[in-house]
Amino acid sequence: MSRVERSEQLSNEANLHDRADTVLLLPGLLCDGTVWQDQIPALAERGIQCIVAHYEASDSIAKMAHMALAQVTGPFALAGHSMGGRVALELVRQAPQRVSRLALLDTGYQGLAAGAPGEKEVAGRMRLLNIARQHGMRVMGLDWLQGMVHPERLDDTRLCNAILDMIEGFSVERFEAQLTALITRPDATPVLAALACPTLFASGRQDSWSPLARHQAMADLVSGSRLVAIEQSGHMTTMEQPNAVSRILLDWLAG
Asked: Which residues form the signal peptide (predicted)?
């Protein structure tokens, strides 16, 4: 490493300590700390405290945000994945003064669409809930997994089992509560338009659930924001491309 590169590294490390000592990590639907398991040690090596929020039996995005907010003190950086991104936007709406910077990964911002598109989404979610009720969470997860990761990773036993184990750790009742929260989700367009903190958007290049184009639309609403495509990844970017996501988050924290 050259003197210039070393100087830049030290500068970035100093910026990390100056700008974000704590990061609140918000998991998505049927996810827990497992989804952030590779990012937590990568950030900890730079002296960053990571807190993974939990939502218990919350059945609305507003309740989830309120619960997450109570799990951290003082100002903090905020990162949300999938449904966690929607919770992050609601948290910013509830306490904008406490969020120093924001990262939204593989997520969305609009409410349930009107008419046939919204009905189709609800029907798809209810189909999964019915599978879970009749056959259990793991069987439902096997069905759901088909569109969750990059197609080439469906043969990755370690990755898929980690995701399925995580899903199986949730009860059908918690699943239903989280689906209710998503179906009744608020439109966060006004929150995006009012954002004043440094904001990062990131999505798997092959994310079919939360496509890159949607993140571009969100980035267009936030002045000075940054958009990153995570290559060779579906929706579960933090687990599919953990090193890439860790690097992106460290760059985001360093500003």
From this structure: none
> Do 172 and 164 form a contact (C-beta atoms < 8 A)?
no
**Domain of 78?**
3-112+187-254
The answer to whether the beta carbons of residues 230 and 241 sit under 8 Å apart is yes
218 and 147, same structural domain? no
The string of pLDDT tens digits covering residues 146-200 is 999 999 999 999 999 999 999 999 999 999 999 999 999 999 999 999 999 999 9
Determine how β-strand 99-105 pairs with β-strand 76-81: parallel
* Beta carbons of 201 and 215 less than 8 angstroms apart: yes
Token pair listed for 252 = 């985001």
Residues 93, 125, single domain; the answer is: no
Q: CA–CA separation, 118 vs 237, rounded Å? A: 26
- Judge if 200 and 230 occupy the same domain: yes
- State the pTM of this model: 0.91
104 and 8 within one domain = yes
Residue range 56-100, pLDDT digits in tens: 999 999 999 999 999 999 999 999 999 999 999 999 999 999 999
Query: Are 9 and 78 contained in the same domain?
Result: yes
Where a domain ends, among 178, 210, 229?
178
* 33-49 burial: b if 16+ Cβ within 10 Å, else e: ebbbeebbebbeeeebe
